[in-house]
Amino acid sequence: MQSRASFSSNPGGVPVASKVVARARRTTLVSTFGVGSLYPAENDSVMICGLDEWPTQFSRVLDEPRLAASLGVQELREPSSGRRNGDIPVVRFPTWGFCPKCRRLDLIWKLTSKTLRTCVACNRGTITPSRFVACCEKGHIEDFPYLRWAHGKSVEPDEHHLTLKTKGESSALADLEVVCQCGARRSLDGAFGVNALREIKGCGGRRPWMPSEPTSASPCDGTLRTLQRGSSNVWFAATRSAISIPSVRDRAMKAVRPILKRFSPDADASGIAQQLRRPPGLTMEDLAAAIAELRQPLQERRKPTNSELRAEEYAALVQGLSEADKDSKLFLCEKVDLIDSNVPPIISQVSRVSRLREVRALRGFSRVTPADPDADNSNSNLVELSAGHLSWLPAMEVLGEGVFLRVDENALTAWCDSDFAKSRVRQILESQETLSSTSLAAHLTVTGRSLALHSLAHALLDECSLTAGYPTASLRERVYAEEGQAGILIYTATADSAGSLGGLAALSNKHRFNSVFRSAITRATWCTSDPVCIESGASGVDGMNLSACHACLLLPETSCEQFNLVLDRKCLIEPDGLIKL
After folding, report:
1. Which 3 state secondary structure label does DSSP give 572?
2. CB 77: neighbour CB atoms within 10 A?
3. What is the pLDDT of residue 554?
4. Pairwise CA distance, residues 50 & 311, whole Å
5. How far is 127 from 149, CA to CA, in rounded Å?
6. Strands 38-41 and 44-48
7. Is there a contact between 303 and 72 (Cβ–Cβ < 8 Å)?
8. Contact indicator for 351, 322 with CB cutoff of 8 Å
9. Which parts of 299-363 fold into alpha helices (H)?
10. Of 49, 356, 375, 553, most Cβ neighbours within 10 A?
11. How far lies 88's CA from each of 21, 258, 310, in Å?
């Protein structure tokens, strides 16, 4: 996809002509390079603008009303692409640049001409963007304050010229020194400290991804942190996803939305419903309820929680949907007959998900530390994608296949009540209690049910990858571990060609699944890092894992929905584990 650059006037700078600066896949604009993120464009660096600047005339609407309702918007749209006036706008950031030849450090528009990237001071070097930026946990970002860092105070920029010199002694930050022509100088040693910029400069509340906002933004009380321009904590995506499942509400909404504008806003909903041609399987009451909901202001509509979305998905997966059903274009799930199979009794259901569609929407982002993606924006550091409230959010869809399995509820409940399960959960909870509220692991649910199901999902996903031939990063887990739920969905999670290889749903065959399941549990009984791994206590990030390491249970980050945390293979294997082969 083409990203159309629309460089706005930089503070103190001049406008730069619009031009195509980079090309990116549309899916990355929802996951990796969304609104407010920094995109490396050859020798330049640009920031993706807010949704207020995005063109919508060429963007396709993704029909997923359940997810849209939970996010408080009317619709979800794919990023536009492929047309000259439909590209995604960006602005240049950082605005400071560096010449590797003469070592000059200044605003880019002072170092280059409008059309060339060559340094105007030496006519030899190609200007590169500054390596460092300053962010606060409320999502603001600005250039690293080189002038104030070198002088220790605010100075007039026009009266000082900086250079970035190296001592040539090492590759550490202490080897880099900001030098001013007035004689002031200071190395970058310590610049990445938590409070390094507290006495240098307060956060200016700048939001460069909103080019229409005034440049004199309101200051905030956050503390600036120095980060490398390309580091992962400059931008964390907050996404929410949903599996497309047939529902009466969604079908009724889809039926009445196109024709609702024909009627007066004061017309009775039941009266309108009686005038419509009723689709098969829907009642007049269903249509009237959909009309009443669509007439409500967007802000007043009830937002289903993520847990409620998952509960609906779980019910649909357990119930199944055969080919004979009419609403099976995007969802097809059929139970597998396990009679005369050797599948262990701990597995009460296996379903073949031959057709599946997942929609993922970007609802915000955070900087420095990741925000809880399920938290309300007003109660977290989650940053909005637009200056004002819009009726849409960017999203992507993934079409694929999968395998769903359900663990026997009675066996799982009995195991969760055992002393062994309680002791394993207690070790992780003790680690979680020591975490700060800003840690993402502090918001994870840790129960015996979630620990066992999540560990089993990792073991099975890795085995499915080996058997079906998918790259592990192309598969994804979806664990249903709320009270009364005991399901695992393993499905294709990539929109590229690796997500359409086929063969994953075929593993639901009772004989093949038996082989895959037993092989996964057998492999979980040993690890190349044993006995260290199997005997380890709280380990991993923030001590949120037990017997789990990269040689056994850990998966690529794209495959796990819980950041490779809350894992313990000892919960699966004998003598005290959940699975008895």
Report:
1. coil
2. 20
3. 97
4. 32
5. 21
6. antiparallel
7. yes
8. no
9. 306-319
10. 553
11. 11, 28, 32
Rounded Cα–Cα distance for residues 66 and 435 (Å): 33
Q: CA end-to-end span of the chain, whole Å? A: 50
What tokens were used for 271? 């009266």
> Which tens digits make up the pLDDT trace of 163-217?
999 988 888 888 999 999 898 999 999 999 999 999 899 998 999 999 887 765 6
Distances (CA, A) of 513 to 126, 335, 501, 579: 58, 13, 18, 15
Residue 546 corresponds to which tokens in the numbers above? 């037990």
Instruction: Give the alpha-carbon dihedral of 174, 179, 182, 186, to 10 degrees.
Output: -20
Return the structure tokens found at 173: 């930050």
Give residues with Cβ within 8 angstroms of 124, minimum separation 6: 101, 102, 118
The residue type found at 129 is P
Amino acid in the structure at residue 68:
A
CA 566 to chain centre: 19
pLDDT score of 281:
67
Tokens of 237: 């995506």
Helix (H) or strand (E) segment spanning residue 110:
helix 108-111
Q: Which residue has the tokens 């395998």?
A: 403
Over the chain (581 residues), the average pLDDT of each successive run of 10 is 40 47 86 93 89 87 90 91 72 93 92 82 90 94 94 81 88 90 92 92 91 74 93 93 83 78 80 78 80 71 86 92 61 92 95 92 92 64 89 92 96 97 97 87 93 98 93 93 96 65 87 96 95 93 95 94 95 94 86
The number of angstroms, rounded, from the C-alpha of 155 to the middle of its chain's C-alpha atoms is: 40
β-pairing, 162-166 with 104-107?
antiparallel
**The two structure tokens encoding residue 563:** 């950041």
C-alpha closest to that of 297 among 76, 74, 75: 74
What is the number of alpha carbons within 13 Å of residue 133 lying toward its C-beta? 28
CA distance 395 to 29: 9
